[in-house]
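Key result, reporting period 2: structure in, sequence out.
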């Protein structure tokens, strides 16, 4: 009997899932599945993260390392050199060498090509894949299966539904074509250069990648008004050095499995010791590299000095970055081993520090930000803030000392909100109201770690409803890196295949017994 799967979201996770599921089927049973991929954006593959936008939005992973297919190292680099006709006309000045940082929209073109190729391969193997351009508003549970309801009144009946929605937006406050307002999502940043007059005063809430993209987009479009970046934590991303990849000896899957077999949990101190041990091994392997220590930094006091030091350090290799990036392969399993009380301490005290270290930026972007700061075109402010509106409708940024500053526009460049209820997702709101999903205390929704089934309000898994990606950050901690998203999507594909085929085998044996 044919089974129907509906994937909500047509970005990187959906490509990795389709590829993993197809390879698991091995072309033998593909004709038994129809898979609908429902994507609200016009293009399939890029998702919101790599949407067609301006070229100043750069990847923070080198061209030679990034790929949508984990088993095909260098696939993006190979695509660039094998298909220059797809991109050189649009990015004539981009150097497609191994160590450059490509524009994110260019990587989006690669993902669009990868989606088409994956679908084509699936069809050749007898699997039906139906792309649908629509926004999913609700998933309704029936006695048998689900109906996936879209904003344009398309209803898809499915046996299984996978939520691969990417980064959720903050609750919408956008006010285009008005004199002032709060913009809840900066992407695509090209819209900001159209909406915001060049003389407007703008506050950017946030200091990581989306905030940096926003500032560079505005300045390269000729913005002349005041721009203030508010880092609520007081930190700013580190700048990516020239180091290559590192193969850890402590932070490995084998070691994690060995630890799990001997003890039920790890303390933060034990994890830090593992990182430091691997860093020592890195320097033993690379004795000529600068032995930059990995220490807890204080919040930034002088932004210009901080940037100057980071830019200088990024001229050479930074060993601790190689060690931290290598944790991508095991970070979800490692997080699962940390004691619950230590997770709380980490999120309260150290998360912002970790992200400032772990989510770095290319040196060329740091140089641009420093230039704006040195010219007086950008201010950097630290500390928690809240945003309100005054009697004239203008946004006001209020700091912990209750000092107020009025702006023409405030841009919320803060990533996904921790609580589903604070997002702009009608789908998540509807699912949560019905109790089909439940919020994870650390953010996003609750899922079973082995099957990716969502956990209902009553604490039980919802057998036919699954979630992968940023919405599972509470469970898996760091889910924003592409390689981690792809790994989870492929794990979900394997788990789903094995569980569904085991269930079919049990049902078949039961029918035979009758």
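The corresponding designed sequence is given below.
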């Amino acid at each position: 009997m044919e089974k129907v799967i509906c994937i909500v979201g047509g970005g990187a996770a959906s490509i990795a899932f389709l590829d993993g599921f197809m390879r698991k089927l091995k072309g033998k049973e593909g004709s038994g599945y129809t898979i609908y991929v429902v994507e609200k954006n016009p293009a399939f593959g890029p998702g919101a993260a790599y949407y067609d936008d301006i070229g100043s939005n750069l990847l923070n992973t080198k061209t030679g390392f990034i790929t949508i297919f984990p088993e095909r190292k260098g696939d993006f680099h190979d695509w660039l050199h094998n298909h220059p006709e797809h991109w050189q006309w649009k990015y004539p000045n981009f150097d497609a060498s191994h160590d450059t940082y490509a524009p994110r929209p260019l990587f989006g073109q690669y993902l669009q090509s990868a989606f088409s190729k994956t679908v084509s391969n699936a069809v050749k193997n007898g699997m039906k894949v139906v792309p649908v351009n629509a926004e999913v508003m609700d998933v309704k549970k029936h006695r048998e299966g689900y109906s996936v309801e879209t904003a344009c009144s398309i209803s898809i009946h499915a046996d299984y539904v996978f939520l691969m929605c990417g980064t959720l937006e903050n609750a919408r406050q956008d006010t285009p074509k008005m004199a002032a307002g709060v913009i809840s999502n900066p992407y695509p940043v090209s819209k900001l250069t159209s909406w915001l007059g060049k003389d407007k005063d703008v506050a950017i809430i946030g200091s990581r990648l989306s905030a940096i993209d926003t500032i560079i987009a505005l300045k390269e479009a000729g913005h002349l008004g005041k721009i203030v970046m508010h880092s609520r934590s007081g930190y700013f991303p580190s700048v990516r050095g020239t180091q290559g990849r590192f193969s850890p000896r402590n932070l490995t899957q084998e070691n994690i499995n060995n630890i799990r077999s001997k003890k039920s949990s790890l303390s933060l101190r034990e994890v830090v010791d593992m990182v430091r041990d691997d860093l020592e091994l890195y320097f033993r392997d690379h004795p000529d590299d600068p032995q930059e220590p990995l220490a807890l930094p204080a919040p930034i006091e002088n932004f210009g000095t901080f940037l100057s030091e980071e830019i200088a350090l990024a001229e050479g290799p930074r060993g601790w970055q190689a060690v931290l990036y290598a944790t991508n392969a095991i970070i979800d399993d490692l997080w699962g081993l940390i004691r619950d009380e230590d997770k709380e301490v980490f999120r309260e005290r150290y998360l912002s520090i970790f992200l400032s270290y772990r989510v770095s930026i290319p040196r060329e972007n740091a140089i641009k930000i420093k230039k704006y700061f040195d010219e007086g075109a950008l201010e950097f402010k630290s500390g928690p803030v809240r945003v309100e509106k005054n009697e004239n409708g203008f946004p006001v940024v209020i700091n912990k000392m209750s000092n107020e500053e009025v702006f023409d526009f405030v841009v919320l460049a803060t990533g996904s909100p921790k609580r589903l209820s604070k997002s702009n997702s009608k789908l998540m709101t509807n699912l949560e109201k019905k109790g089909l999903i439940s919020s994870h205390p650390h953010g996003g929704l609750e899922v079973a770690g082995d099957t990716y089934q969502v956990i209902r309000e009553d604490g039980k898994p919802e057998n036919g409803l699954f979630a992968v990606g940023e919405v599972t950050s509470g469970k898996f901690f760091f889910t924003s890196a592409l390689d981690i998203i792809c790994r989870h999507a492929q794990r979900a594909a394997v788990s789903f295949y094995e569980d569904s085929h085991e269930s079919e085998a049990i049902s078949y044996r039961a029918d035979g017994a009758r």
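The first helix runs from residue 12 to 25. Residues 505-510 have pLDDT under 50 and may be disordered. This case is discussed further under Risks and Mitigation.
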